[in-house]
């Protein structure tokens, strides 16, 4: 069993981005600028946004965190997004999800200028991905592809089973794995809550991507020997023995599944770190397009 070390790999990509930013700065360029909007005080969202801001600092990006109370109106939020769309030195805009119930996710996603859509959630970004055109790819599936690439995991002709069909992870993941590229060229099965006999499907899989958000869901009896297992889960589980009061739990029962795998991602230190690296890469891309490098 080999570990797909997301922390180490993310550091490699972040170092590469930092070197590119330093070279651009030496030529007199300004810093790439990412703006994150956070609504309310959801603990997990706070943690993710803090990691994004920290990564920006580490690699020489400017970052701005804009906070709104949970009861902010959709109108106020949209006005802020429109203002950022028009602000010349803002390269990337992200609105951290989930949103409060009274704010429509689709409306906010559509409001972000597609040129600054570094989350890759805008229909234009998703359409470009589907057509294989240059554009922003959602950070989690993009980060997983970067991880598979870094470790040179052989995916061509393999059967990949993706569990979960969310528009930000499972669905784009299925598209990327099936693309004619390296990594890619998989035969993909996209499974979801209405799939009959999920275990039947996962037992056929050479590659499993677990992205359903149910802690310890994927058990050893669902995995064939030699499989590659990617764990996208990051659920906070109560744990009074830790000072923070919780631990992060993946969708995979790591201890039982890992001995059967050829490759597996740990949680934490796997996909989460790669998501941040991929977001930084999207932001650098946005910056370079805007300054026409
Ligand atoms: N919530 C969970 N994942 C993400 C992400 O990649 N981007 C945003 N904006 N919100 C999220």
Features:
Rossmann fold; alpha/beta; six-stranded parallel sheet; 293 residues; binds guanine
Ligands in the model, by name, code or SMILES, are:
guanine
Mean pLDDT: 97
Number of helices: 10
Structural class: alpha/beta
What kind of sheet is the major sheet? 6 strands, parallel
The tally of structural domains comes to 2
Q: Outline, from the CA principal axes?
A: globular
By CATH's scheme, which homologous superfamily of the largest domain applies?
Answer: NAD(P)-binding Rossmann-like Domain
From the alpha carbons, calculate the radius of gyration and give it in angstroms. 19 Å
Description:
With 293 residues, the protein is an alpha/beta fold. It folds into 2 domains: 28-115, Leucine Dehydrogenase, chain A, domain 1 (Rossmann fold, 3-Layer(aba) Sandwich), CATH 3.40.50; 139-272, NAD(P)-binding Rossmann-like Domain (Rossmann fold), CATH 3.40.50. Helices cover 40% and strands 17% of the residues. It has 10 helices and 11 strands. It has helices at residues 6-26, 43-59, 74-86, 105-111, 123-131, 139-150, 170-178, 198-202, 254-257, 271-290, and strands at 2-3, 33-39, 62-68, 92-95, 159-163, 187-191, 207-210, 227-231, 235-238, 246-249, 261-264. The strands form 3 sheets. Strands 1-11-8-7-5-6 form a 6-stranded parallel β-sheet. It has a 3-stranded parallel β-sheet with strand order 3-2-4, with helices on both faces. Strand 5 (159-163), helix 7 (170-178) and strand 6 (187-191) form a beta-alpha-beta unit. Helix 1 (6-26) runs parallel beside helix 10, helix 2 (43-59) packs across helix 10 and helix 6 crosses helix 7. It is globular, with a radius of gyration of 19 Å. The protein starts with a strand and ends with a helix. The relative contact order is 0.17. The mean pLDDT is 97.
